[in-house]
Each structure stands twice: as C-alpha cells, then as structure tokens.
Amino acid sequence: MASDRIQRTLAMVKPDAIERSPEIEKIIQEEGFTVVDRRRVRLTRAEAEEFYSEHRTKPFYPSLVDYMTSGEVLALILAGEDAISHWRRVLGPTQVSRARQEAPESLRARFGDPTNDSRNAAHGSDSQTSAHREVKFFFPDLTLEPVLTGEGAKEYLSNAVSPTLVRALTELCKVRPEDPIVWLADWLLVNNPNKPPVDK
Ligand code: ATP
Ligand code: MG
C-alpha cells in the first residue's frame, strides 16, 4: 500500500439511512476502510447549522438543517489509501436520482431517497481541510497523531513496534501455546509498553 497516501475522512450516515447503518458499515468494511472511531448522536439545530455552514446562503439550507436534526446520525472516522476520494466514490453523486442513473451500485443510489435532494443517506468530506474540520467537529477530544509515511513510518516500526514484537515472538516460540494468536494477544495486553504493567 502506498503509505504516503493514507488519509482520514469523516463519513456520516444521515437520519434517513440510520436504520440501515449495519448494511452501510458492512460496505465500509468490504471497501477496506479502517474505522478509527464512531459516534451515534442527534445533532442540535446549532450543530447542524455549523456543520453545513458552507451552504448557509443556499435556498435548501433551512430544510437541510431540519432534515439533519430529524433523527440520529452515525459519524465515523475512516482511514485508508486516498480515503477522501475513495469514500466519495463509494457514496456516488449528491443527487440520488442522478446516482441511480450514473452509479447504480453507489451507496446513495441504493440507500437514498430519489424524491428528496437532501435525503441522500450519507456524507463524506470533500477535501483534506474539510476532513480535518469535520473529524474535529464530531470528535473534539480525540488526539490523532499525523499519519506517518515513508521513512517516518519505518522509523516508528523499528523503534516502537519491532522491539516489543521480537520479545513477544521469542517468548511465544519458547512457550509454544496451543492457541498462539490468543496467547500473543494476552501477552501484548500484559506487556503493552505504553501502559503501566497489568496484573495477571
Ligand atoms: P455531503 O456534503 O452531505 O457529503 P455533497 O458534498 O455531495 O454532500 P453538497 O453540495 O456539499 O453535496 O451538499 C450538502 C448536502 O446538502 C447534500 O448531501 C444534500 O443532503 C443537501 N443538498 C444538496 N443540494 C441540495 C438541493 N438542491 N436541495 C436539497 N438538498 C440539497
Ligand atoms: Mg459537501
């Protein structure tokens, strides 16, 4: 994978599709995204207005805000290669009737309402700047390290990951547990270098 193109984006299942979020999350998984965090919330009017503030002068803005506050939404941080454009591609065109014609397999074609231009099932950030803003909007307390790339990623693996893994795998070879995966998971929990030692 080209690690220099790993991005994070904000996906949101809108109120009209919230009942179908398990199906949408399955698509997210099948598309290969990593879900970094998820949150189901009901937006207040002020929050919906802020989230879609770029559209404040558009005629559809008041009804869009009505709609976005009509029920809960599911916000997800997705990570993956070119995640921003990849997720927009999975969504399909903004207008559901157009999505049905031009991208019948897309999420909006399958889950959106072709009779209402606001009820298009899901949202996706449209740029790095909006992804950053929208992730902060839904997850203000989450500290996300910058995605490491190239030499930085190699350095991180060799300094922070490999030493612990080498110890774990050496121990695993000595112990030869019946279920090595469960054993390794337990060992990593007990020996997590970023946390105080855990009592067995
Ligand atoms: P989103 O930002 O939700 O991912 P988008 O980037 O494809 O959608 P935008 O132009 O940003 O499209 O519009 C934001 C949202 O406003 C749309 O997803 C849709 O719910 C609603 N919307 C857009 N155009 C109209 C319209 N003409 N009438 C009613 N609602 C609209
Ligand atoms: Mg948009």
How would you describe this structure to a colleague?
- This protein is of the alpha+beta class.
- The protein has 2 domains: 2-138, Alpha-Beta Plaits; 150-190, cAMP-dependent Protein Kinase, Chain A (Up-down Bundle), CATH 1.20.890.
- 47% of the residues lie in helices and 14% in strands.
- A 4-stranded antiparallel beta sheet has the order 2-3-1-4, with helices on both faces.
- The structure holds adenosine-5'-triphosphate and magnesium ion (MG).
- Adenosine-5'-triphosphate binds next to strand 4.
- Adenosine-5'-triphosphate binds at residues 55, 60, 64, 94, 117-118, 120, 123-124, 126.
Structural class call reads alpha+beta
Q: Remind me, CATH topology of the largest domain?
A: Alpha-Beta Plaits
Number of domains: 2
What percent of residues adopt helix (DSSP H or I)? 40-55%
Global shape: elongated
CATH architecture of the largest domain: 2-Layer Sandwich
- The rounded Rg comes to 21 Å
* Main pleated-sheet profile: 4 strands, antiparallel
CATH class of the largest domain: Alpha Beta
The tally of helices reads 9
Average pLDDT reading: 93
What sequence of helices (H) and strands (E) makes up the elements? EHEHHEHHHEHHH
Bound heterogens, unique? adenosine-5'-triphosphate, magnesium ion
Strands, count: 4
Q: What percent of residues are in strands?
A: 5-15%
Cα distance, first to last residue? 37 Å
Biggest sheet strand order reads 2-3-1-4
pLDDT < 50 runs, ≥5 residues:
none
CATH fourth-tier homologous superfamily of the largest domain: Nucleoside diphosphate kinase-like domain
